[in-house]
């Protein structure tokens, strides 16, 4: 078991948006949260990541309960629903910056990022600044940046927003 969520509930100003959610994610599984807008998907994700406080429930990562985001740091990669970049850096600079934080072996990092850039057909955007990118290309950059991290679980909120069918596949 990689992640277990037990009896998770969350309210905002007395309005319950998450009620008694329970699930387990095993290594190698792909799981999707599906629901209408406002159903609580993002609140569930942010509660799991300890970015917001939940009202009740508990989460365990690799069998251990965790109390704050620092307990799961470098174990869970999060791709938010709104892209976050260093806008004063080019796309390549963003990639290299994240790479230096999460990768000790420069040769392995270079190979990894070049493969991701090829896979996402992103070569032509490397010298651009993030603000110059389309919504879909911003999303590609977020996925590339997230994939450069060494993690055991990736949580992505609205990961396919702006992507064409080829890139989604």
List the helices and strands and how they pair.
Layout: E1 3-12, E2 15-25, H1 41-48, E3 56-61, E4 64-65, E5 76-79, H2 91-102, H3 106-119, H4 135-147, E6 153-156, H5 165-168
Parallel strand pairs: 5-6
Antiparallel strand pairs: 1-2, 1-3, 3-4
Task: Offer a quick outline of the entry.
By secondary structure, the chain is of the alpha+beta class. It has helices spanning 41-48, 91-102, 106-119, 135-147, 165-168, and strands at residues 3-12, 15-25, 56-61, 64-65, 76-79, 153-156.
Q: By helix and strand content, what is the structural category? A: alpha+beta
Oligomer status: single chain
Number of strands: 6
User: What is the makeup of the main sheet?
Assistant: 4 strands, antiparallel
Rg, Cα atoms, Å: 17 Å
Percentage beta strand: 15-25%
Summarize the structure in words.
The protein has 169 residues and is an alpha+beta fold. It folds into two domains: 3-72, P-loop containing nucleotide triphosphate hydrolases (Rossmann fold, 3-Layer(aba) Sandwich), CATH 3.40.50; 91-168, no CATH class. The chain is 30% helix and 22% strand. The chain has helices spanning 41-48, 91-102, 106-119, 135-147, 165-168, and strands at 3-12, 15-25, 56-61, 64-65, 76-79, 153-156. Strands 2-1-3-4 form a four-stranded antiparallel beta sheet, with helices on one face. The chain has a two-stranded parallel ribbon with strand order 5-6. The radius of gyration is 17 Å and the shape is globular.
């Amino acid at each position: 078991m990689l992640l277990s969520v037990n009896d998770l509930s969350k309210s905002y100003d007395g309005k319950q948006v998450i009620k008694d959610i329970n699930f387990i994610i095993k290594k190698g599984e792909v799981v999707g949260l599906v629901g209408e807008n406002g159903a609580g998907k993002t609140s569930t994700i942010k509660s799991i990541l300890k970015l917001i406080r939940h009202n009740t429930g508990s989460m365990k990562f690799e069998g251990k309960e965790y109390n704050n985001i620092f307990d799961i740091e470098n174990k869970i990669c999060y791709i938010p629903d709104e892209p976050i970049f260093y806008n004063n850096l080019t796309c390549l600079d963003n990639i290299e910056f994240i790479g230096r934080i999460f990768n000790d072996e420069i040769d392995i990092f270079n190979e990894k990022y070049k493969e991701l850039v090829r896979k996402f057909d992103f070569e032509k955007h490397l010298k651009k600044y993030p603000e110059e990118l389309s919504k879909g290309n911003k999303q590609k950059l977020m996925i590339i940046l997230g994939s450069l991290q060494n993690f055991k679980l990736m949580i992505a909120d609205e990961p396919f927003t702006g992507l064409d069918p080829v890139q989604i596949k």
